[in-house]
Structures are given as C-alpha cells and as structure tokens.
Amino acid sequence: MSPVKASHATGPNGAPGFPLWVHGNGNQAQANVLGALEKHKAEGLRDVVVHFTMPTMEQLQSIARQRIGVTFLVNDFYYYYQPLCEQILGSAADTASLYPAQWAEQSKLHYSLHSDASVTPPSAMFGVWVASTRNYQKGYVPKLSAACDTAAVKGSQKISRMQAMRAYTSEAAWLYGRENSIGSLQNGYAGDLVVLSADPLVCVSMNPG
Questions:
Q1: From the CA atom positions of the chain, what is the Rg in Å?
Q2: What pTM does this model have?
Q3: Class of 3-175 per CATH?
Q4: Is the C or the N end of the chain the one with fewer CB within 10 Å?
Q5: What is the C-alpha to C-alpha distance for residues 72 and 172, in angstroms, rounded to an integer?
C-alpha cells in the first residue's frame, strides 16, 4: 500500500475514537504504516502494527513508544525461516530483522507476540520457546545452507524467557489499553488460573518435529 493509500485508509478510522491495528510486512510497508499512524494520531488511543516484519532499526527507534506498540508473529520464524532465507530474501544478513524482538527490547518499545492461528499453532508457550531460542524447523530438503545457518544471524533477535513471558502478558495488556486490570499478578486484577507441568522459565525443547 502506498503512503497516500495508507494515509487515506487510516484517516477516517482514527476519528471515531478507535485504535488502529494495521498489518505491516517489510521495511517499506513499515515506513508507510508508521507515517500514516503518526499523521492521524488520536489523543488517548494506542495503535498497533501487527507482524512488524523486517523494519529498520531507525524505524523502530522512531516509534512514539507511549502511543504505538507492535506484535510479532514469532512462530512464523520457526516454520518459515529456511524458505524465507534461502528462497525469498536470498541473503542471511537480511533475516536479522525478521521479527526483531531484541531490537524492540533495546528500544524500550511495547511489544507482544502472537501465533496468527491457524497459520501456526495457538500455543503461547511454544511462542516463548521460539522467541527465546530462535530455533527453526528442520527437515527441509536440501538442508539449510551454511550462510543461513549462521548462529549469529539466527540468534541476533533472541530475547529471554522472562521477556517473552512479559510479551504475552503485561505487554499484551498494554497494547489493548488494559494494563491496569489484566496482564500481571496484582491485587484486583482479573486473571485465569493456569497449571503447568514444569517451570516455564526453564528452556526445555518444544520442538514439534
């Protein structure tokens, strides 16, 4: 979508008092979306860029942190890293900005993680595992090239298990403007009781094969 079309698409929607959730994939798309959101900002609303795939560091640092958040389709990295690196991007270096959660963390940006079910399984714990390991699906033929398998490239955007847990809880609540009622363990906050079979902060393999 061109900058003009993006501006027109967001303009009327910002007026009635609704936040905007806009999909953005690729650095040019991020430029168009962020420009449109900045132009049509509404007082008291928080907008969200969904997927936020392959932005530049400059774009990420330019975001108005108290008004715009992002959410990464982190599971996509596990399932599609190899074809993205080998067949589409054609360069391992270009994959460094695939769902850049570490950049978001460094820039103190509000961010969450999501699965885009049914594109990938709706498992928050699987998303935590992918975000904290940057593991990818094995078994493609041919195997991943040495260039795309470089640990520094794949792991450059890793975040900790605790950071990933916050992305699914308190940070997700912030994106919805509900950080004062859900998303963390505090007196008076609503929540669901979840019983886990192991410590979620221990990095055990969740490789589905």
A1: 18
A2: 0.88
A3: alpha beta
A4: C
A5: 11
